[in-house]
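Good morning,

Attaching, inline, the backbone tokens for the sequence recovery test we're adding to the shared suite. The designed sequence is right after.
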């Protein structure tokens, strides 16, 4: 920021709502809800170390950004890349669709 003292909202969602307005803030929150829900469903259905680990990492990032995100913004530590990587990993998790059985060959 160009000012000597940077002003930021208390957490990531309030910051985005302040920057994007209420509709943008709601869309940003919806993105988080969908990512956490997809990771949670995949962790429940598949229970592998990768699916559970991605869910726990995304849940930890959600709690961290919900409680307080000011130190990471002020100190210049950008955790956004990790957040987007977690969103991408959650999107790539296996769905609950069962694979079709292979047709027998004669």
């Amino acid at each position: 920021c160009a000012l000597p003292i940077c002003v930021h909202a208390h957490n990531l969602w309030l910051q985005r709502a302040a920057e994007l307005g209420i509709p943008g803030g709601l869309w940003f929150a919806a993105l988080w809800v969908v990512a956490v829900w997809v990771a949670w469903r995949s962790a429940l259905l598949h229970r592998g170390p990768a699916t559970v680990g991605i869910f726990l990492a995304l849940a930890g990032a959600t709690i961290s950004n919900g409680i307080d995100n000011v130190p990471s913004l002020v100190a210049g530590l950008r955790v956004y890349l990790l957040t987007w990587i977690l969103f991408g990993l959650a999107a790539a998790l296996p769905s609950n669709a069962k694979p079709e059985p292979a047709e027998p060959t004669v």
